[in-house]
Amino acid sequence: MLTIQKAQDWMHKTNQYIQDNKAYLTELDQAIGDSDHGINMSRGFQEVENKVESASYDEVSALLKDVAMTLMSKVGGASGPLYGTAFLKMSTAVKGNDTVDQDVMAAGLEAAAQGIQQRGKSTAGEKTMVDVWEPLASWWKEQDEISAENLEAVAKEAMESTKQMEATKGRASYLKEKSVGHIDPGSASSYYLFKALAEVLA
Ligand code: ADP
Ligand code: MG
Ligand code: MG
């Protein structure tokens, strides 16, 4: 399912979506944060792309670890360590598998979603990227076979569900009920990540 080549393509496509939607991500963060999510993500994923395209890997886990380290060191703000933790946990969970099949990936995504929650001391329903990662990981685990189309739809619906939530974690929580009515920026960038994954797996 996820070969080294596909994992590289995943990061390439994610970076494209992030660069193309940098202004939109910043706009979302302008509404309920400090206006830097587009900048943070665009810097981080450009570095990720540069890193994984220039290196060679003997397994997917090693590539994911590079993604984690790059995001942790190059992205300031809350999202860097959170995305970094997600990819580090995913890397550890899929270690030892030349090709990451659907079940191994299920474990990887579950570990990633849990990692974000541990690191962020957050849980689903708090209007953060957890609201995309957690339902996505649960959905993945239940599937007999992953449909790329459904993967994209589940991620999109999860992102959109954050619009009506009141933030209780991260900067948006300072706004309390005024955070309602806006999509969470980190959920939007997470959506692009899974949209890219869906395309790679299609
Ligand atoms: P910062 O808020 O430090 O400026 P970013 O703007 O890059 O960092 O990222 C903000 C995003 O990080 C939020 O939209 C949210 O999805 C995510 N986030 C913030 N705090 C937490 C947390 N405690 N747990 C999970 N995700 C969080
Ligand atoms: Mg911000
Ligand atoms: Mg910031």
Present the secondary structure layout.
Elements lengths: L3 H17 L1 H11 L4 H18 L5 H15 L4 H16 L7 H19 L9 H13 L5 H14 L23 H17 L1
Helix pairs in contact: 1-3, 1-4, 1-9, 2-3, 2-9, 3-4, 4-5, 5-6, 6-7, 7-8, 8-9
The structure holds adenosine-5'-diphosphate and magnesium ion (MG) (2 copies).
The site of one magnesium ion has 3 residues, from loops.
Summed up:
With 202 residues, this protein is an all-alpha fold. The chain has helices at 4-20, 22-32, 37-54, 60-74, 79-94, 102-120, 130-142, 148-161, 185-201.
Account of the 3D structure:
- It is a single chain.
- The N and C termini lie close together (10 Å).
- The chain has one domain: Serine Threonine Protein Phosphatase 5, Tetratricopeptide repeat, CATH 1.25.40.
- The longest helix has 19 residues.
- The model has no long low-confidence stretch (mean pLDDT 97).
- The protein is 69% helix and 0% strand.
- Bound molecules: adenosine-5'-diphosphate (ADP) and magnesium ion (2 copies).
- Adenosine-5'-diphosphate (ADP) binds next to α3, α5, α6 and α9.
- Pfam families: Dak2.
- It comes from Oceanobacillus locisalsi.
- Its EC number is 2.7.1.121.
- Keywords: Kinase, Transferase.
Key words describing this protein structure:
globular, 9 helices, binds adenosine-5'-diphosphate, transferase, 202 residues, binds magnesium ion, phosphoenolpyruvate-glycerone phosphotransferase activity, Serine Threonine Protein Phosphatase 5, Tetratricopeptide repeat, mainly alpha, 69% helix
